[in-house]
Amino acid sequence: MTLAIQDRPQTLGEEIANAISHGIEASPERAAKGKSATGLLILRVETNGQRLAVTIQDDGRGLDFSRIAEVAMREGILSESVAAHCSPQDLARILFRPGFSTAASVTNLSGRGMGLSVVYEAVRRLQGDLDIRPAEGGGTLVSLSVPLSIASHRVIIVTSAQQLFALPHSPPAVRPSATKTDSQSAHAPPAAPESSSRAPQCKP
Fold it and tell me: In the chain, how many domains are there?
């Protein structure tokens, strides 16, 4: 399922990999906490007014805010005094920074610091919102929403070799005659999207 994030079809995959790698504990650790040996991952997709909402929830260990603050201070993102005044929400948003990871080592699923930052930038380009927070009852809840209009596309249904394919379809583009002002606007650099690289403004 690529959903609305057509330019980043791996977005949901990144979210799920992040939940499995960072959230779901190993079976012995889960057993010691009185949990089922099998982790639970819930994916919900629904419409809310004019927006498409996606949530991914796991029943894992949850966000380690102390670890996030520790890594952020070590990498110079936060000073010790600023970190002391950061709210859980401020610390959670640091996870959207490119290259930031709390993993102790690099694996096929984690440690590169690219998972959540990839999702964040893809959602921002679609004028969407992304949030990560502790889930009620334990674990982590990641929620994203994008305009519903972006999620709706006309397609041509094609059947071949007993397989069903949906091919994108759009009417031919009409190119209006360009004025001097239009030409200047076309060559103007696009506005930069809001960046996740800024340090959070944590206040006492």
Answer: 2
How many Cβ atoms from other residues are within 10 Å of residue 160's Cβ? Answer: 7
> Are 20 and 37 part of one and the same domain?
yes
- Verdict on whether the full-model pTM lies above 0.70: no
Distances (CA, A) of 202 to 14, 88, 129, 172, 195: 28, 10, 21, 49, 17
Contacts of residue 67, defined as CB under 8 A and 6 or more positions apart, other chains included, come to: 102
Closest CA to 114 of 128, 126, 97: 97
Q: Other C-beta atoms within 10 Å of 10: how many? A: 15
Q: Provide the domain limits for residue 168.
A: 155-186
State residue 154's pLDDT score.
Answer: 67
Reduced to 3 states (helix: H, G, I; strand: E, B; else coil), residue 141 is: strand
Cα–Cα–Cα angle for 48, 50, 51, rounded to 5 degrees? 60
49 lies in some domain? yes
Chunked in runs of 10, what are the mean pLDDT values of the chain (204 residues)? 43 67 85 92 88 91 92 94 93 90 62 68 87 91 85 69 69 55 45 49 60
State the Cα–Cα distance between residues 62 and 23, nearest whole angstrom.
6
State how beta strands 163-168 and 155-160 pair: antiparallel
Residue in 94, 33, 85 with CA at minimum distance from that of residue 61? 33
